[in-house]
Amino acid sequence: MSLKTTIKRALRAVGLHVYFAAPDALPEHLHGLFSRLGINVVIDVGGHYGEYGTRLRAMGYQGRIVSFEPTSEALAKLRPAASGQGDWRVFDSALGSSPGELDINIAEHTVFNSFLPASEFSRQQFGAETAVARTERVKVETLDRMFDRCVEGVANPRVYLKLDTQGFDLEVLKGARQVLDRVLGLQSEVSVKPIYQGMPAMADALGIFSELGFELTGLYPVTRTEDLAVIEFDCVMRRQAMP
């Protein structure tokens, strides 16, 4: 066993997980994009433990954050993270193409929680962390139904939509057709090597984003294999025709 593998296993034993990622320039990009677009509402779909909202506050964003997170364990950590951090609201539901309820897979490492099963590549790359520990029945809403609640009280809302739903991003967009023209910026996690069964290929997702009226402003690697091949990108976009 290599020293690197030994160190990674020791860190995982105490709850720390190390992956191969590129240097993080995403916050700097978002800071510039938010300034140009005048973003004052960020809809954070897949809030998890509040990591994204915390990052936004750290980079100086003071506008509203609205986080959607359906799972009970993550909500128990997200709510305290949002508390006392300005105008940061939390909704205890997922977003999808239609309202209702769905069973979500709760993985051994909760960043892999998904409505979709893990792919064979994912199991080989990430090992037991993608294994399903249990399932949880969760509420699903649509952005069409929730949008007005997200922006209520904000004069001239200028919205950035961040999606991190582990293979479910396009389903969220299907449920946002009536309000998507009010979204000025969009962020989605796209996979070069799909880590969930049934999720769209990166090229297909980029084509759909373009059809919906968004143009690419940046691609930022999220994870890599040990030989440095990119697994996922954070894909950042803006509207092609700006109001």
TrEMBL record:
<dbReference type="GO" id="GO:0008168">
    <property type="term" value="F:methyltransferase activity"/>
</dbReference>
<keyword id="KW-0808">Transferase</keyword>
<dbReference type="InterPro" id="IPR006342">
    <property type="entry name" value="FkbM_mtfrase"/>
</dbReference>
<feature type="domain" description="Methyltransferase FkbM">
    <location>
        <begin position="44"/>
        <end position="216"/>
    </location>
</feature>
<protein>
    <submittedName>
        <fullName>FkbM family methyltransferase</fullName>
    </submittedName>
</protein>
<dbReference type="GO" id="GO:0032259">
    <property type="term" value="P:methylation"/>
</dbReference>
<dbReference type="InterPro" id="IPR029063">
    <property type="entry name" value="SAM-dependent_MTases_sf"/>
</dbReference>
<keyword id="KW-0489">Methyltransferase</keyword>
<dbReference type="InterPro" id="IPR053188">
    <property type="entry name" value="FkbM_Methyltransferase"/>
</dbReference>
<dbReference type="Pfam" id="PF05050">
    <property type="entry name" value="Methyltransf_21"/>
</dbReference>
